[in-house]
Amino acid sequence: MSFNIGNQQGGIVNNVAGNQNIHDGQSALFTADGQEVRGLVQDLRTSIEHTALPPAITPEVRAELDSLDEHAARPEPDRQAIASRLDRITQLLTSAGALATAGTHLTGPLQALADWLGTLGQPILHAITG
Questions:
Q1: pLDDT digits (tens, 9 = 90+) for 71-92
Q2: Residue 5 — φ and ψ, nearest 5°?
């Protein structure tokens, strides 16, 4: 069996032969104004707040989140600065073992932000997925 699919445009396009199950929703980012990016930063902040972190890294993670939010709030978000902050947050969470135990509630926002970063997000995606 085969099927042909023409050009498709949209935030999310799923072509599935068979069943598809989606847990925790889907999202796509295609804005330049940073509003959706800020939403993802807030999602990440909420996820981190619901994750047990060692007290030694909590202040640094919060400071990186504040800086990440500041860069995302700009009319033209600075992708390089966001990548740097997100990379540092990912390193901290990895060193604390939080990524290994947290599941998609934490990795989902990290992956979405890394996807938005494009090639700058590739090292972060690699760190998340191993």
A1: 999 988 999 999 999 999 999 9
A2: -120, 125
Q: Does residue 9 lie within any of the structural domains?
A: no
Q: Is residue 15 scored above 60 in pLDDT?
A: no
Query: What is the count of structural domains for the chain?
Result: 1
16 in a domain, yes or no? no
Tell whether the model's pLDDT for residue 122 goes beyond 70. yes
Range of the domain at 124: 35-129
Q: Are 124 and 83 in contact (CB under 8 A)?
A: yes
Of residues 127, 121, 129, 97, the one with CA closest to residue 40 = 121
Show the tokens assigned to 124.
């972060």
User: Rounded to an integer, what distance in angstroms lies between the CA atom of residue 68 and that of residue 95?
Assistant: 19
